[in-house]
Amino acid sequence: MSEQPVNEKDKKEPALSPSLMLDSELVLEPIPEQPQDPNKIAIEERLPEEIDLADPELYFNRELSHLQFNARVLEQAMDENHPILNRLMFLCIFSSNMDEFFEIRVAGLKSQLEYSREKNGPDGMHPKKVLSYISEQAHKLVRRQYRILNDIIFPKLANENVKFIRRTVWNDKQAAWVKRYFRDNVLPIISPIGLDPAHPFPRLANKTFNFVVELEGRDAFGRENGLAIVPAPSSLPRLVKMPDEVCDGGDNLVFLSSIIHAHADQLFPGMIVKGCFQFRLTRNADLEVDSDDIGVDLAGALRTELQSRHYGSSVRLEIAENCPSHIVDSLLKQFDLEQQDLYRIDGPVNLSRLMAVLELVDRPDLMYPPFSPGLPRKLASSGGLFEAIRQRDYLLMHPFESFSPVIDLLSEAAKDPHVVAIRQTLYRTGSRSPIANALVEAARNGKEVTVVIELRARFDEAENLALASRLQDAGAIVVYGVVRHKTHAKMILIVRREGADLTRYVHLGTGNYHAGNARLYTDYSFMTCDKEIGDDVHRVFQQLTGMSKELKVKKLLHAPFTLRDRLLEMINREAENALKGEPSRIIIKVNSLTEQRLVQSLYKASQAGVKIDLIVRGICTLRPGIKGISSNIRVRSVIGRFLEHTRVYYFFNNRNPQVYLSSADGMDRNLNNRIEVAFPLQDYKQTRRVKKELEYYLTDNTQSWILQSDGSYQLSKPRKGDYRSAQRALLSELADNTR
After folding, report:
1. Which of 141, 347, 596, 723 has the fewest CB atoms within 10 Å, measured from its CB?
2. pLDDT tens across 270-293, in order?
3. Residue ranges at the known binding site for Mg(2+)
4. Does the active-site annotation cover 488?
């Protein structure tokens, strides 16, 4: 950590200025707009027939909207409704989100400029201008992040006897213990690198933890260069718990950065260490596998590309705030970065590593209490899942309801002598997960197991390659989907012989087959043996594993073939009903909304008088509240204890509601460039249930952020005594409840 003395001026400042304090009126900054032609009539003042729905003024910039989502996550660290360790978790999640934002989104914009491939989005903003705005906003967010950490989270944890001990306050016992720890655990494996012609600047991998050390004096060979690099070994924990015998009680933690900083002189015997400053370099981590060059071996091409992921082009430099400018300038030059890419840090350079606190500190009283997910009574009975699903369809909402029926369905199928075949898509699941184990068992038991693994699931590529190898070793057939289209659909198809017939059992979901994520993400699971849905899923698998013309499906909507167009048709139908004076309503809940034709269709429906509610967790390029265009559209984002991940498309349909649940967001990549499915709810009770659960989100006034027409987000303000939380309501209604 940076450990400059605190001056008297800093001591007199409040922990956070009033503009940074979280309250019910907090507003996140508007998205900057392109300068407009002064001779052009403002879009709010034009007649509807004069407005081109492709006008850039009608769209927010995708990347800046993404950055705003990260800002809303950061604000959870300020929300006193969350327990203090959960608030620290949100701070870590924000840090991880920002890492990915720079690795992928910022890196992509920089690549456009580097290779002269600039492409404006629907908002019309040039990538260079977007990067400038990102730098301005990201610097504000990072400063806020560290002020929250240092002025609020650390003090509140200290009040709970969880302390982060800085080296400036170590007592003699602690200093002696740290010295031994450094001697026994750090010094034997750390490799300082003095910089000179024989020791060029080391090639630093993406997001590795390093120190730049300023030295004075000549070494034994007469060298006098003045700078050295100390990479912190990845095998060392970034946070270490001090033993009780050197502390006065409670949990006492020390950063590896403090340990190395305090003993930097031992790395350079005889030299004078003038300064030791931690830094971290972020690189482009997006994999670019050229579909035209991979031949027939996608897995091999991906393995090759994974080797280079850690050494992509430089994107961001984070460094201790007290590092002298001449050293910073030297590093910027070394990494070919500009001042706007520099982030001076008042704390650990990688806050996501603070997640280790949850393992080092046994304080369940400082976290959300655990809960038992609910389970429908018939699924919990001993009659078996096939029998239960034969009787009726089941709809589950995780994590409020258990994910175990999905795992149990596969496990039961793996053992059942009547099951002859299993087919499944996998996007993120883990090579040793319960799902993977069940598929391996099924293959070893002689079932025909076919698995479509999406190797290009970002940051899960290596895990998916390992999973593919494990399944192949067990005798399963593994395919990698379609080269130019990621397989994002969530499907299981189990074929079971029942008498003279073959019955298809199906699971469809909005989330990944990952038991860990199912405890953290909100997602729907649907289990059925409906014949037509089973036939549809069979046809989708035929397209994925074989080669055929587009196969017609009856009930599912299937991207990239029918999903987008059917969504547009259902939106337009609501508009037509509204124009006829019939009641109309659209509710869409997705993670992101960017697909331009979808946005334009929603604008037209709003102009026709359709009441539209959009629950968009993350990126939203649609601009609500514009008179004559989107005045009937409300957009909200709900951020809470669980990550919102369900995708729901609800249409009133002239009093005969249609509800589709889907793996697909309202983005161009989902609707046009991925294999996705949306499945209908055919049972009136299930349709009514989902509508009720959507209403929980629409009436949430504690964790709901409302998107304004200028691009800012305003936190909902509950009336006294009227506190509504969608996630709490769902926990109360669905969890720990056998129905």
Report:
1. 723
2. 889 999 999 999 999 886 655 554
3. 428, 458
4. yes
